[in-house]
Amino acid sequence: MTAQLNARGDVAVLVPAAGAGVRLGPGGPKALRLLAGEPLLVHAVRRVAAVSSVRMIVVAAPAADVEAVSELLAPIAPVTVVAGGAERQESVGRALAAVPADVPIVLVHDAARALTPPAMIESVAAAVRSGWPAVIPVLPVVDTIKEVAPAPAPSAVLAVAVGAEVVVGTVDRSVLRSVQTPQGFRHEVLAAAHVAARDPLTDDAGLAEKAGIPVTCIPGSELALKITRPIDLVIAEALLAHKVTG
After folding, report:
1. Segment 30-48, tens digit of pLDDT
2. Which pLDDT belongs to residue 158?
3. Domain-located, residue 207
4. How many domains does the chain have?
5. Inter-CA distances, 121 with 28, 87, 148, 153, Å
6. HEC string of 60-83?
């Protein structure tokens, strides 16, 4: 049975949540790591469920945890939980297969962006609704970006040991953007991009680009930070403690 929130909504949100989260350190699947006493996935789903245009949420969980994740999320919102794959792209594909054809807009959202404001989620959906086939929220790159190569060293052994690099160029950051989620698509656009995919990519917008589909950028949010490293958990905890949640 397909779990629904607003039966008149036109948006399905896919949440791939089967990743191990190696960079976050030991402790099980990343989406189930605790933030302020609750799993990241709970925070993320709660914010998605607050968006009035969302008809359904599909979570791709680790295969061994499908039942446990279903029970975890049941008090938060009606959620369809499917078994994720070995790679993110496979998890998104499995979640997408659970979305009925009559849902016209599909968003793909990282569970690790647990503090994403509902208003930003709706802004992505609204942009797709307005006619753009693929939409991503972005932020300007604020750091200076250097292109590097392995640095010469007195010996090859030393170069490898210290991991030294040398700058070969400075990238113009004015034309660079940091990409966030949710990424939004017309349902048929995302489905076709996955069918056409040949190589795994780090995001679904990349699949759309490969398929020749124009991807439109709209403003993102500083609160939609991706919790990837232990320091990110500290920052997110501080934001919650000060009620800076958008």
Report:
1. 889 999 999 999 999 999 9
2. 57
3. yes
4. 2
5. 27, 24, 35, 48
6. EECHHHHHHHHHHHCCCCCCEEEE
